[in-house]
Structure formats: C-alpha cells, structure tokens
Amino acid sequence: MTISLENIGKRFNYEWVFRHLSTGFHAGNSYAILGPNGSGKSTLLQLLAGSLQHSEGSIRYSLGNRPLPQEQVFRHLALATPYLELIEELTLMELLRFHARFKPFLPGVSLPQIMKAVQLEKAADKQIRYFSSGMKQRARLAQAVFSDVPVLFLDEPCSNLDAEGIGLYGQLIREYQRERLVVISSNDEQEYSLCTHRLSISDYK
Ligand SMILES: Nc1ncnc2c1ncn2[C@@H]1O[C@H](COP(=O)(O)OP(=O)(O)OP(=O)(O)O)[C@@H](O)[C@H]1O
Q1: pLDDT (tens digit, 9 = 90+) per residue, 118-165?
Q2: Ligand 1 contacts CB of residue 65 (under 6 A)
Q3: Which InterPro entries does this entry report, sorted A to Z (predicted)?
Q4: Do residues 187 and 24 touch, judged by C-beta distance below 8 A?
Q5: Which amino acid residue places its CA nearest to atom 17 of ligand 1?
Q6: Which among 26, 2, 30 has a CA at the least distance from the CA of 176?
Q7: Which phi and psi angles does 124 have, rounded to 5°?
Q8: Atom of ligand 1 nearest to the CA of 43
Q9: Which of 33, 69, 101, 183 is 20 to 30 A from 50, alpha carbon to alpha carbon?
C-alpha cells in the first residue's frame, strides 16, 4: 500500500490543525507521526485511515500499483488506539473470534498463539469488562498486529502498558512488521524508536 498526501490540510470549524502537508507513506516502511498534545497526530492518523475527511488537498491510495478508492481502505488496514472500544460483554476468545469473522488473522496463527503473544492466555475466558486498562490495550494490539492486512495504524500503542507489555509490543512490531506499512502516532520514544521515518506535525502549522 502507498498513501500519497498532496497539500493536505485539516480544520475543525475555523481552526486549522495542520496545512500544506505533502508526503508519501510506502509499504515496507514504518513512520512515526510526532508532536505535542493537541498538535494533530490522531487527526492525521484518522485522515490516513479514511475515517475523517480532510479540508483541503488530496489523498491517494494504491495497492499493488492499482488505485484504491478511499471507501475501500478500511478493508486493508488494522488500527489500535486506546480509544477503540472493545465489546465488554465478550470474553477475549469470543472477541478474537468475532473480529476474525470480519478481518481474518494471519494464516497459520491460532487464537491461543495470539493471546500468548501478549500474555493474555490465562484471560481467554474472562469478559473484557473485567480487564484492566493495560490488558485491554494488549488485546487491541494483538487484534491489530495479527490481522491479515498490509497496513497497521497505531495511535499511542503503549498507553497503559507496563514495562513487560512495552517489551512485548516491541517484539510484536519487530516480528510482524514484515512488508507492511506501519504508521505510529506518538510522543513517547519507546513507542516509535523502531520507526524508519519521522514526521513532525508541528512543521505543518
Ligand atoms: N472532532 C473534533 N472537533 C473539534 N476539534 C477537534 C476534534 N478532534 C480534534 N480536535 C482538535 O484538533 C486538535 C488536534 O487534536 P488531536 O487529537 O489530533 O491531537 P494529538 O496530537 O493526537 O494529541 P494527543 O497527543 O493529546 O493525543 C486539537 O486542538 C483538538 O482539540
């Protein structure tokens, strides 16, 4: 997947969050979107994901050298953010099964393996409503990283994670980045140190 931004700007009401942003995001690379609180990192990630409309400029997507309509983009990406709601009534096992009906997991990877990768195997039959905030974030990361998609968007991926969780996150990214396009919105070095490219949103004010 390649995402090309040309002179992109986003405003809410009369306030511009960023303007004149032209850049490209290419498969096989990892990009960190950096900036202080409120600078527009999550907003840019949502624009890239096609879940928010830009105010000016153009965004083009292509997959395997073919143009991809914006309304199709969600099929090819997985997103993990601390504000992504999980279905609280489901157990972790049920949640992963439910997710896999819409977005299959990587071939050859079983649900127990996915849970083990984030050390949640003992919580397989626990309802999400009884998960701690760090356990929920581990579940979100596992759900995204193991989805069989070429694009991975992570917004503040280490939110609520303890040191062990941060270590597991690093391992997951190293192991499963592969040929994917990975974009991480963050202001925490631990989250984005693995990224090969950095984009500072403050440069586009
Ligand atoms: N739906 C919205 N309506 C109006 N303003 C919004 C909306 N969403 C975001 N904003 C504003 O856009 C700006 C950028 O917000 P955004 O959440 O993208 O920042 P961020 O860099 O991700 O911040 P943080 O590091 O705190 O997560 C902020 O001023 C915010 O108030």
Answers
A1: 999 999 999 999 999 999 999 999 999 999 999 999 999 999 999 999
A2: no
A3: AAA+_ATPase, ABC_transporter-like_ATP-bd, ABC_transporter-like_CS, ABC_Transporter_VariousFunc, P-loop_NTPase
A4: no
A5: 42
A6: 30
A7: -55, -40
A8: 18
A9: 101
- The range of the structural domain enclosing residue 95 comes to 2-204
The token pair that represents 194 in the structure block: 């693995």
The alpha carbon of 42 and the centre of ligand 1 are apart by a number of angstroms equal to: 7
Distance from residue 124's CA to the centre of ligand 1 (Å): 34
55 CB under 6 A from ligand 1? no
In short, whether 42's Cβ falls inside 6 Å of ligand 1 is yes
Q: Is 187 in the pocket of ligand 1 (CB under 6 A)?
A: yes
- Structural domain tally of the chain? 1
Residue 101 backbone dihedrals phi, psi, to 5 degrees? -70, -30
35 within ligand 1 shell (Cβ under 6 A): yes
pTM: 0.96
Q: pLDDT per residue over 75-128, tens digit each? A: 999 999 999 999 999 999 999 999 999 999 999 999 999 999 999 999 999 999
Amino acid at 149: V
CA–centroid distance, 22 to ligand 1, in Å, is: 20
Contact assessment for residue 54 and residue 43, using Cβ atoms and an 8 Å cutoff: no
- ipTM of this complex: 0.97
